[in-house]
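Sequence in, structure out. Go.
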Amino acid sequence: MVDGPKRRLPLAGSGAPGAAPPRGATPGPEKRRLPVLQSSGDDEGEDRPPWHWIALGTVAMFIAWLPLAGLVNTLLRRMLERAGDAGAPTWVRFAMVGLNVVAFALAGVAGGYLVGRFGGRAGRREAAASGAVVATLAWALALAEGAPPGALVWALLLVVMVAIGSAASYAGGSAGLRARSAGSPRPS
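Output:
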């Protein structure tokens, strides 16, 4: 046997794109490309009915509210530890309620903004409805935890929570609608 340079055969399809196939090879079928659909971004949420956005706003509001509530209650726990076992002063009690209301309202604005900005046909009404749903669910969870007696107090709490959640979500929905209209091209 003679050891000489080895000759390699070309592999099928190893040529440059658009190059002729190697000698003796049959040309393969032309590669097919899938069409690319490009969205103009104007109709991002049109395929969902408006009531779907109530559920999406509700989920978004809970997702925003849970970390905010965790942060607020961690800060409040530290305030209570500093106050000692003698009982919480009045200002700490007001801070507990006020900071939790602010966290709930901020989450309502965030969920309402999502509905207003990306909601397609959904708008302020659906944003406010998602805030009312979150308030009702949170109230029901608090009631299920073992509420002290006092149906009137709990009924008033429900009304206040629904009012805060709806108003904050409505404001967020209005801001989202303004952002949507500012981002869309103006007809000429």
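Check: Helices lie at 50-83, 90-118, 124-144, 151-183. The two ends are 83 Å apart (CA to CA).
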